[in-house]
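Q: What structure does this chain adopt?
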Amino acid sequence: MKNKFNPWHDVSPGDNLPDIVNGIIEIPKGTRAKYELDKDSGLLMLDRVLYSSVYYPANYGFIPQSYCEDRDPLDILILSQIDIVPMCIVPAKVIGVMRMLDNGEADDKIIAVAEGDPSVSHINDISELPAHFISEMRNFFEDYKKLEKKTVVVEEFLDKQTAIKILKESFEMYKEKFEKR
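A:
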C-alpha cells in the first residue's frame, strides 16, 4: 500500500513566511548517518554513513513545498542547543544562507535558528554567529565527501535577505513543478 502522506508535499512550509519556516529534520546534529527523505514513500532512508570521521555540525533537513535546481527540496541547517530527532517539524527563523557547489551543481543551504530554543532564538542574521562556527560549517561541508572522491565547494555565507530571496524562488519553483499534482 502506498503511503498517502509525504512530508515534502503535505506539510506546510509555515504560517509566518518568509521569516520563519518549518524545517523537517532528516539528520540530527552530531551524527555521521546521512539520512534522506525517500521521495516516493515519504519515509527516511539511510543513504550512507559518512566516509570521513566528521559529524553534522547542525540539525539538517529540508523545507516542505520547496524545490531547487538539484531536483530536491531546499536544504536547511537549523541551529539549536539540542540534537533534534529526525522527521520533527521545527519552526525556524531564517538568518542566512550557505552557497555551495556539490559536484559542480548549486546546492544552497538555508541557515536558521530554532524559534523555540531561547539559546539561539535571539539571533537575527548570520553575521551574529561566531566566526569559528562559520569556519566549522565550511570545513564540514568541504571535507565530508573527500573520501568518496567527490568535491564540495562552499562559495560564501550570505545574509538573511539573500536567504529569503532564495527561499521565495524555491517556493515558486515548487509551484511550477508540482502545481498539477
